[in-house]
Amino acid sequence: MSDPRTNDPRINTFRRRLPGVVYGGDYNPEQWPREVWQEDVRLMRAANVRLVSLGIFSWAALEPADGRFDFSWLDEIMDLLWANGIHVDLATPNAAPPPWLATDFPEILSVDRQGVRHGIGSRGHFCPSSPVYRDRSLRIAGELAERYGNHPALAMWHLGNEYHSDCYCDLCDERFRGWLRERYGTLDELNHRWGTAFWSQRYGDWSQVHLPRPVRGWGNPSRELDFSRFTSDLLLELVTRERDLLHGITPDVPATTNFFGCRLTDSHRWAKELDVVAFDCYPDPGKPDSMAVAAFQYDLMRSLGGGRPWMLMEQAAGAVSQWKTNQVKQPGRMRLGSYQAVAHGSDAVMFFQWRASRQGQEKFHSAMLPHGGEKTRTWQEVKALGNELRAVDEVATARTRARVAIVWDWQNWWAVEGCAHPDNTFDYRDTVARHHRALWNSQVAVDVVTLDDDLSPYRVLVVPNHYLMARHHTAAVRKFVEDGGHLLVSYFSGIVDEDDRVVEGGYPGALREIIGAHVREFSPLPAGATVPVRAAPGPTPLDGFLATASAWQDDLETETARPLAVYREGHLAGGAALVEHELGRGRAVYVGTRLDDDALEALVRQVLDRAGVRPAHAAPRGVEVTERRTETSAYLFLLNHRQDKATVTLDRSGTDLLTGRRLQAGERLVLDAAGVAVVRSPPATPQGADRSSDDS
Ligand code: GLA
Ligand code: ZN
């Protein structure tokens, strides 16, 4: 598969300066005396560190007073790193404005929804609209680019850090009005889009329009939705302005910023503006599903990259410190999680942070090099992994081809968790994650997309609870099914348009013809209540299907669809819980309730089966299977998440890159608990095929 951006000079720079799988982490030398720097680079070399993210929180150290710069220490560090062969992902330090900036210009501080202006002493406390903040943060970014643009250590730019600063100040209020004027043109249009006829909200003058500050009761949901869109756009404007400035000075140096799954920033839109996608991932070792959630996030990042590199920019070497109880990663689990990112397409394994801080808010957050130094288990594992990763360098640039896509959309996230819905306990992220988990347990490759993306590469499209659907989304889904795709869509989907206005014509207005059924009434279930479900009478592809429904029931009336499963009890007993509909050359399955995990997985497997999508390799449950390919090789990743050994009978011959062992087809490969194998073979099937039945 060709890389769509191989002609991009910045991606070429990335590949040239950072070949192979990149290892490293955030480096904060300003917290340490110079003697320690020498030890740092010595140990970085010992661990095969190739890249450090530098200067993320260095603004105060680089500009101690307005316009007075001190780059001497950074000069020294850049040279020291380069003398040791280590590249730098140099940050623009805008995430933590220094005290002088907030004191000289208090308006740069962000304001919360209640109108309280934040103080200094933490980070992220800036107003994204503030002209002074914008000016000073761009100025220092420009200074860094001018000074280090030609430094041989510079490999990439790290714009800010985890953008998440929303603000409700007067400057942002003004900007919000401007954003709305641009979006809607006239006040009449705004009144129409926001449905202001309800509760006497009609605006007669633009000066009456404000961002959503606290209100007496429920706030207008369309305004909330637009404020979310605005905030994402506003923060993205900071990113693109900085990016443009840096690209102007260093046209060949790629720029990224690190995503972290933040609700405020629509990463689908953001990723389009970046050269490289980067992600910070902190799966909770104490939660059984956290590795499945990580897989979902990694699939999202790879999909956002769309062929551009994506990097695991931060993870913890052990425990974090920001939760109530911070559990450690048990022996081997950090390694396993690192390979998991690579298995899902990451070309980097990086950490927050290199050396554990002795002071400050995160002094008990793990690091590559713990307070206890070189004797610690964490350091030993970090060092071993960095050296072992050399063996898989060749997988960098290898691509993943998925025949299954799941929809995850920020716009829908903002809308579906809006106020005064039939069920106000709904958690979109959890819902999409559990649909993804059913696919993950089925061991198939999955892309994470929106309905704005090209759906033609996929055989199966899973659309969990997609409440907000614009007209062109309906058209895209219809085309997908008519062209032979297999759609799985769950309840409370296709209900409103992009203005949060109910699509008329009976629920789900935007999907009714596609699913061939109509929801007469939404019937949410109280917490803890369940209703048994079984396969519909007569022959059905779901023979023997048994499930437990909770949270929600659609009172479904089949039109051109047929019932697949029915409720066995309650006021909807005998009514359809699941329906299927043939449309064009494809098929839609609609799920009108929340199925228990096992039933959801059984249903997902049935859909995959009908679509002819199979895993890259058979493996026992709890062993994750992925494949990355180049023109000449297929790399099979086998990751044992279980607490015990697992055996995989190989369907191909190849070489395990981690042990160098030659493996024969039919051989039983034993993976220890937390064990990993990366098996290289020549690609057995045509490039890009997931061995689905219709591949040619
Ligand atoms: C985020 C930040 C880091 C650090 C870690 C802690 O990802 O970017 O600076 O605070 O969290 O887990
Ligand atoms: Zn503001």
Structure description:
With 696 residues, the protein is α/β, with parallel strands linked by helices. 30% of the residues lie in helices and 20% in strands. It has 18 helices and 27 strands. Helix 15 packs across helix 18. The longest helix is centred in the middle third of the chain and has 29 residues. The structure holds alpha-D-galactopyranose and zinc ion (ZN). Zinc ion (ZN) binds next to helix 7.
> Could you say which structural class the secondary elements and strand pairing correspond to?
alpha/beta
CATH architecture of the largest domain: Alpha-Beta Barrel
Molecules bound to protein: alpha-D-galactopyranose, zinc ion
Number of domains: 3
Distance between the termini: 15 Å
Give the overall average pLDDT.
Answer: 96
Helix count equals 18
Can you tell me the CATH class of the largest domain? Alpha Beta
Please describe the topology of this protein.
Elements: H1 9-17, E1 22-27, H2 34-46, E2 51-54, H3 59-62, H4 72-83, E3 87-92, H5 99-104, H6 131-148, E4 154-159, H7 170-184, H8 187-194, H9 221-249, E5 255-256, E6 258-259, H10 267-271, E7 277-280, H11 290-305, E8 310-314, H12 333-343, E9 348-351, H13 377-388, E10 404-407, H14 410-416, H15 428-441, E11 446-449, E12 460-463, H16 471-482, E13 486-490, H17 512-515, E14 517-524, E15 530-535, E16 546-558, E17 562-567, E18 576-583, E19 586-591, E20 593-595, H18 597-611, E21 623-629, E22 634-640, E23 646-649, E24 654-656, E25 662-663, E26 668-671, E27 676-681
Parallel strand pairs: 1-2, 1-9, 2-3, 3-4, 4-5, 6-7, 7-8, 10-11, 10-12, 12-13, 13-19
Antiparallel strand pairs: 14-16, 15-16, 15-17, 16-20, 17-18, 18-19, 21-22, 22-27, 23-26, 24-25, 24-27
Helix pairs in contact: 6-9, 11-15, 15-18
